[in-house]
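[agent] plan:
  1. take the single chain provided in the ticket
  2. run structure prediction with default settings
  3. attach structure tokens to the ticket
  4. add a short note for the reviewer (M.T.)
[agent] executing step 1
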Amino acid sequence: MEFIWLSPVVAIALGFIVWKLSRVPKLSKNNFFRAKENISKTKNLDPNHGLMDAHKAFISALQSMYPASRTNGATLIKKVVKRLPNEKIIWKLHRTRNLAAHEPNFEVYEKTASQARREFERALNALR
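[agent] step 2 finished; step 3 output follows
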């Protein structure tokens, strides 16, 4: 009889843990507009740098959603990819960014850089 109170306490504790783990962080309005502005600033850059800077702005926005995570871009994208309407395109652009950053003779076309700006903004809209 002494442990009759234990059942409701355990139920409340488990409910709290489930609630805490199931919460989905959202992109704040301020971080959304900052990232969107930084992405639009990449229009004047050459395509290689434009893609890399647009990607950096997108990843920075993801880091603002998960401030305790000091991880790379791929890990942050994995955390939100199921919420994105354009997940395959985001992965493709992430791989293209890595090629542009690490391969000396890799060239990004202007069409790809403008697609990156458009798709990163679309992904940001989904995270609001």
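[agent] step 4 note for reviewer: Residues 43 and 114 are 8 Å apart (CA to CA).
[agent] ticket updated
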